[in-house]
Amino acid sequence: MTTVLEILDGGTRYLEKRGIEDARRNMQHLVAHQLGCTRMELYMRFDQPIEEKDLAPLRDFLKRRGEGEPLQHLLGTVFFHQHEFKTDARALIPRPETEELVEMILKFPGLPENARVLDMGCGSGVLGLSLAAARPGWQVTLADVSPDALALTRENAAKLGLENVAFARSDLFAAVDGDFDLIAANLPYVPETERPTLTREVMHDPALALFGGDDGLDVIRRFLPQAVEKLRPGGWIALEIGHDQGAHVAGQLDAAGFTGIEVRADLSGVERFPVARAAR
Questions:
Q1: Is residue 226 part of a domain?
Q2: Does 87 lie in the same domain as 216?
Q3: Please, are residues 86 and 124 in contact by the beta-carbon 8 Å criterion?
Q4: Domains contained in the chain, number
Q5: Residues 32 and 96 reside in one and the same domain
Q6: What percent of the chain has pLDDT over 70?
Q7: Which of 23, 124, 148, 179 could make an S-S bridge to 91, C-beta 3.0–4.6 Å?
Q8: Which of 139, 135, 134, 100 lies closest to 118 in space, CA to CA?
Q9: CB 163 within 8 A of CB 180
Q10: Domain contains 270
């Protein structure tokens, strides 16, 4: 009978041949997920035989991962900013940079304890729901044009037991009511010209959430002039964008009438996060 160590070794070789980075770590996650244990606990179970009822699903997971299906989709969850979220093909897989955006927003000065917050293009909801969890006094609206993404957001809100949230299916602000102290957005920003260069894993994300026209900024161009009208005086806007789009987006923020414009770097030094305020 196949042992844990044997399936780890064999699966790692299989994934390496199919060009999967960090093949060993991927295989550890898959085996631990199937056995209901942690990766660390696997080291204590190397000699444990794996029953056929566990081998069959592992073979399926292994085949799908080798074909480029993201590990996060196979596991069904991802850990993001102190919470576990459900993730699947209905929305973007959460990126570590977005966690940095959450931390940045939580340090913005001047936001009231009962702030009205909007997460535009919420996807799976990790940005807005993390803010709602960290600031129970805030009222957070999560909006997305995709009904599938919004359904996933609702599932994640229920998983976290959050009550200070509301939802809107909306093409930008078309169905979003009221004004806000803060608007955060991780909108589509990948240029269409980069489609052929994206990894197999990224191409499992919804195209609607990835691509923003020829230069990646079509949605952001529509968004910013509307956003400035929806912010209360002195309110904040915070965005996540592509690695080379900072100057362009800063110019668009200025043209829309925002003040205090800056593009902040992520932990890798990439200018990733344009932030600005509405005029007082």
A1: yes
A2: yes
A3: yes
A4: 2
A5: no
A6: 100
A7: 124
A8: 139
A9: no
A10: yes
Tell me, yes or no, whether 186 and 139 share the same domain: yes
Rounded to whole angstroms, what are the CA distances from 193 to 190, 199, 210?
8, 14, 12
pLDDT number for residue 280: 83
Secondary structure, 3-state, the chain: CCEHHHHHHHHHHHHHHCCCCCHHHHHHHHHHHHHCCCHHHHCCCCCCECCHHHHHHHHHHHHHHHCCCCHHHHHCEEEECCEEEECCCCCCCCCHHHHHHHHHHHCCCCCCCCCEEEEECCCCCHHHHHHHHHCCCCEEEEEECCHHHHHHHHHHHHHHCCCCEEEEECCCCCCCCCCEEEEEECCCCECHHHHHHCCCCHHHCCHHHHECCCCCCHHHHHHHHHHHHHEEEEEEEEECCCCCCHHHHHHHHHHHCCEEEEEEECCCCCEEEEEEECCC
* Rounded distance between C-alpha atoms, residue 100 and residue 124, angstroms: 17
pTM of the model: 0.93
Final residue of a domain: which of 45, 67, 89? Answer: 67
Residue 10 lies in a domain: yes
Give the model confidence (pLDDT) of 191-203 as tens digits. Answer: 999 999 999 999 9
Can you give the residue range of the structural domain that contains 189?
A: 80-277
- Are 129 and 140 spatial neighbours (Cβ–Cβ below 8 Å)? yes
Same domain assignment for residues 19 and 87: no
Q: List phi, psi (to 5°) of 147.
A: -65, -30
